[in-house]
Write a structure and sequence with these properties.
Layout lengths: L1 H17 L8 H15 L2 H10 L8 H30 L5 E3 L3 H9 L12 H24 L5 H8 L2 H23 L2 E4 L3 E4 L6 H19 L5 H16 L30 H33 L8 H22 L4 E3 L4 H5 L5 H14 L3 H7 L3 E5 L9 E5 L4 H11 L11 H17 L2 H18 L8 H18 L2
Antiparallel strand pairs: 1-4, 2-3, 5-6
Length: 495
Amino acid sequence: MSNGSGWSGFAKRLDAAFMVSARGSTLSREAMGALAAFLTLSYILFVQPAVMCLTLPEGTPPAERAAFSSGVLAAVCLASALACFLMGILANLPVALAPAMGHNFFFALCVCAPAAAGGLGFTWNQALAANLIAGLIFLALSLGGYLLPRLDPRRLLFGAIPPAMQSSIGVGIGLLIAMVGFEYAGIVIGKPGTYVGIGLGKIPWRIVGTALIGLLAFGICWVRRIPGAPLLAIAASAVAGLATGVLQCPDRIVAMPDPSATAFRLDFAGLCESGAAAKGALMAVATFLFLDMFDTVGTLAGVCRRAGISLEGGDSGRKVGGALVADAAGTVAGAALGTSTITSYVESLAGVTVGARTGLAAIGVGLLFLAAMFFQPVFSVIAAPVRAQLPVGFASPGGGTALLYPCLAPVLIGIGAAMMACIRDIDWEDPTESLPAFLCIMGMAFTVSITDGIAFGFISHVAVKAASGRFREIRPFVAVCAALLLLRYAFELTG
């Protein structure tokens, strides 16, 4: 009797503290919402270590690569759990947080890519330092909004960039991610003359087939609106990979997490070794900050609208401020431990769909992250690269070896497809809106650079608005960014 009474009293206190009944939910719905949201976003546990491993120098020993991957996974789980706990406690919103897709590719393919390949040329240690600085700036701004709710941060964030530009950035990142997915699947490979070509018939069918089975599973789940489509796609590819010998069974299922390979290994000094490095560092910090802020606010608005939670009037400033604090704190913790930007996940809608309405769902997702980090052996096998020999005439005159990720490719392609929905928010009848949006989208996809895509969009936006005499539609923030980006290109052209 006492046990039942004790649980009943605890449940009532939880209900009151998180306004569960007041928002039309129950404790069981919050638990189911947490599970649904986690299953939907848990693909990041497979993807993030693989993406972060792209920052390692070529020729890194396998043992060192494995330790790095293990450290990234531990960082993801610990930082995401912290952010989810803060989201639940400070904002009481059913929003889960984890490393952001798109941000991680910017980190690996732009900030850490060599200058000869169009990147900023920083090491992963230096890039994490830049990300930490951006997170601290975001945290300072967010604390102001949380402690002083009247300073509504949404006005600054939503008003700085035109909606068409915001939408085109999302679409461009989606195309970039999908392109990487096609490459990881072996569907697209490097080809002289046209730069890319079809990989079917040139990459072993068991590798490409593993990815296509996962993509089919993703499509079926997406069409039927089955929660957890990315995770089920990975599972389908893993089963196919094990059956065909593309993957090997892990030697164990559970292992103690070890973040030592990545935790607290930031290199702040390397950010400012020269004038060029300092300019690159400023660009990296600004872009990390920009992407995190806008992704967070946009996701919060979408998830809360679906959940029927108002972000207008009353305690809305406290809700938004608390959510931004959670997001920024997660980014700071993640950068310190060894992973890229932590942000709010639109996949939280899966939890909202099954009834989650409070921060208890976010706290539940955090607990699941903590449990997941003990299954690193499983994640490392599924996310391991598969080597494939390319035919002569591809990649290099003598052929070459491609590193493919057939179990991750379906998720990247599927997420890229989902991000295309933002394209409907662009006014294609207005050339001053559509041309900059198009250049932003295609710039990201063709240069494999989020920064350059944004630059193309901002510069052309200011140019066409000015040319048409619509000066009042040029936002000051966009004008300043366009000028700075134009100066960057001018300096690069003059050597």
